[in-house]
Amino acid sequence: MITRSLDEIIGSERDIAWGNGRSRRFLIEEDKMGYSVTETIIDAGTTSLLEYKNHMEACYCIAGEGEVVTCEDDKKHIIKPGTIYALDKNDKHYLTAYSEMKLVCVFMPALKGKEAHNLSDGESSVY
Prior knowledge:
The protein has about 130 residues and is mainly beta.
């Protein structure tokens, strides 16, 4: 059985600055579960152009508010506590945090553990 607390992860090698916030990685590839679970913090006032070509991702909002805009159809989805969004087509999207957001995210297949986004080149950041 695997057990981990957030206190163990904060400040460890599983606490990753991903670009516009932090990703606390409870489960990664080396845990051999086939998926990852993270607590992801998105900094207030940021917008990130993201794309997951190698993973499916589902995010459940537990705090804060923001929006996701899909690039394919320019559709805006308001995200607030109690909302889940799932990138079921490896959707290229903009994630904007109106206030600091906290998401519980599941990635499949599992993250290796050190992935972070490059948000400085104007292209979508992929992993």
